[in-house]
Structures are given as C-alpha cells and as structure tokens.
TrEMBL record:
It catalyses: O-phospho-L-threonyl-[protein] + H2O = L-threonyl-[protein] + phosphate; O-phospho-L-seryl-[protein] + H2O = L-seryl-[protein] + phosphate. Pfam families: PP2C. The keyword Metal-binding applies. Residues 45-54 have a biased composition (Low complexity). InterPro entries: PPM-type-like_dom_sf, PPM-type_phosphatase-like_dom, PPTC7. Its EC number is 3.1.3.16. Residues 41-62 are annotated as: Disordered. Gene3D superfamilies: PPM-type phosphatase domain (3.60.40.10). Keywords: Hydrolase, Magnesium, Manganese, Metal-binding, Protein phosphatase. Its cofactor is Mn(2+); Mg(2+). Residues 56-342 form the PPM-type phosphatase domain. This is Protein phosphatase. It is an enzyme of class 3 (hydrolase).
Length: 347
C-alpha cells in the first residue's frame, strides 16, 4: 500500500494553512500479516437490513474507523500506524505480541495514539497561528494528552489492550528573523526519524532508539511503565528547504543500516530527477512534484528484500549476536515509511 497523504475528515480539508512551510509527502507500507479489523465501536460495519437496530445507515458505504464521533486519522499497516499531513508525519509500531492475548489489539493503540496526537497539535494556537509568536509547539504535551485519551477510549466498557512506540515530526518555523523551517521531533521507543540534506548527501539528524532490553523498546500502553512526560525525547532540528524527513518503523531500521537508507534515498531522488518513478505533479528537482512517494516505495522494497532473506546480514542480526543470541538473516516485520520534503509555501 502506498500514497501521498492519509485521509482527513471533510472539515480539516478546508482549514487554511498558517505556516510558511509545508511537507510534500509520500508513504509506503508492507505488512507481515493482514491487519486485524478494528473492533466495535471503532468500526461499525454497515448492515444489510434496515430493520437491524445495530446498522449504520447514515454512513452505509463508509468503512472507515471512528472514535468519539470523528474519523480516526492515519492508516494501519499490520500493527504499525502512519499519519501523513502537510506539517505532521508519524510512524508508530504496535507491539505484535498482543495479537495472542485476549482483548489484545496493538494496531488500535498505535493508530489511536497518532490520531489524538495530530489532533492535539492542530488545536494548539502555537502551531496553527502565525500570530502566536510568544509560544512554541509542545509535542510531548500533545503526546501525553493523546496517551491519556487513548487509555480512555480503550477502557471499560470497551476494553482493548496494547502497546506502541511513538515517533513523529512536526514542521514549524522560526518566529524571529531571519526565519526558516524548524522541525520538532518526538520519539519514544525504536521507531526512527531521520533528516537528510540531499544536496550535501548527508544525514543531519536521527533519533536515538530507547530500549528496556534487547527487542523490548520503550512503549506506551497496557502494563507499560513508560509515559510521554517521563520518557519521550523531543529535539528541535534546524532544517532547510529541500531537506528530506523520514519517519520509519523498526521494520526499516532492523533491516537496513543507516548508510544504506541514505544511499537508497539519494539514488531514488536521482532516478526521480531523471524522469523515472512515475508521473510528476511539478518540478522534479530534489524529489519534488510527487517524488516522495517514489522515495518511500523504494525504501520499503529495499527493507523487504532483507527482511525476507534468511541468510542476509542485518542490523537486527548484529545486535542479536552482541546479546549472545544465535540469529541469522533479516527480521520479518511490518515496514512503514513516510517521506517528506520541506518546501516553502508560495504566496
């Protein structure tokens, strides 16, 4: 599955953007197994009978997920979730072991955290108003609010258990001269955000993985001691127009080394600029005009090759050996990539 942006409710589509910068985006996904359907009340399938008191005739063709009367933003990929907007991107990795537990639903947790996180960012005037120069975004607080709202939404009488990592990047701007884009990156666990400067061929920033122990990252949810206020790390990153920001689940970073991710993205941009990778919606320079979709797709392909190779050398295998475990090959997992190109808004 792949696309440029994840769906938004009708009212959000008509909100006027305030920031002078925005993301051109693309995402690509690979699930190691099909996602479990969301349980009621988050998904209410349409009924075939108008006499059925549980039918949902008012949205009889709508199979999207809902919470608190709102469409749940983002897309589920196995147990992962991604959310792709013009100033907020994220990739959460739900812990798949919950699939074997009664009332376990990691995908629901990963998706709801992202949904509420994005809503909190939208509601904060420091993000939505250029006039709010005396304040700045607080993504950790947004994540804490999202965490608390997810607990409430998955509690009695509709109890669903799960845990998820959390990683997102919020594109803002410097309110003082000379101005410029400013990225707020927040991470808890082992999903990853990378910032690349293609014109220099280098990575200028990456998040640091957080672990309790090998293969057990920090995570938000049922029975976990971790909370955003106590454990999330937020960094402010000075970026430039045409920098590329990646939000990825560990299905990428467990199978590709950092230099391989960089080389793959740079090669994809070169191919895109030369006319490969599909139709463009504008200038192809630097991966613009739709190139981020191609970048995301190529990166998922590369990670999947290693993930499905039982004899490949991989970062996950290397870490396992360091822990004294006899392992070989890639790690088959959900692979989620969001690629975003920072651009200045015209006009």
């Amino acid at each position: 599955m792949a696309g440029t942006t994840t769906p938004l409710p009708e009212e959000a589509l008509h909100q006027k953007a305030k920031s002078p910068f925005f993301f051109e985006t693309g995402y690509a996904l690979f699930a190691k197994r099909p996602s479990r359907p969301f349980p009621p009340p988050f998904l209410s399938p349409p009924s075939g009978s108008f006499s059925d008191p549980l039918s949902t005739h008012h949205r009889s063709r709508d199979r999207r997920q809902w919470v608190n009367g709102e469409m749940i933003r983002g897309i589920t990929n196995g147990d992962d979730a991604v959310l792709v907007g013009e100033n907020f991107i994220g990739a959460n990795d739900g812990v798949g072991a919950w699939a074997t537990r009664p009332k376990g639903h990691a995908a629901l947790w990963s998706r709801l955290i992202l949904h509420f996180w994005a809503l909190e960012a939208e509601r904060d005037a420091s993000v939505t108003s250029i006039a709010a120069e005396s304040s700045e975004p607080n993504p950790v607080r947004y994540l804490q609010e999202a965490y608390e709202q997810t607990i409430k939404a998955t509690s009695s009488p509709n109890e669903w258990n799960g845990t998820t990592t959390a990683c997102a990047a919020l594109l803002h701007y410097k309110t003082k001269e000379p101005g410029g884009p400013l990225l707020y990156v927040t991470n808890l666990g082992d999903s990853q955000c990378l910032v690349m400067r293609p014109k220099k061929g280098e990575i200028i920033y990456k998040t640091t993985e957080q672990w309790h122990w090998f293969d057990c990252p920090r995570q938000l949810g049922t029975n976990s001691p971790d909370t955003p206020n106590e454990n999330a790390v937020m960094d402010k990153v000075d970026i430039e127009e045409d920098d590329v920001v990646l939000a990825m689940s560990d299905g990428v970073v467990d199978n590709l080394w950092e230099h391989e991710v960089l080389e793959n993205v740079l090669e994809s941009i070169r191919k895109w600029e030369s006319g490969e990778g599909g139709e463009t919606s504008g200038d192809r320079t630097g991966g613009g005009g739709g190139g981020m979709l191609f970048v995301a797709e190529e990166l998922v392909k590369a990670a999947r090759v290693i993930a499905e190779d039982p004899y490949a050398e991989s970062p996950f295998m290397e870490r396992a050996i360091e822990e004294g475990l006899a392992m070989e090959g890639g790690k088959l997992d959900d692979i989620s990539v969001v690629a975003a190109l920072c651009k200045r808004r015209k006009g």
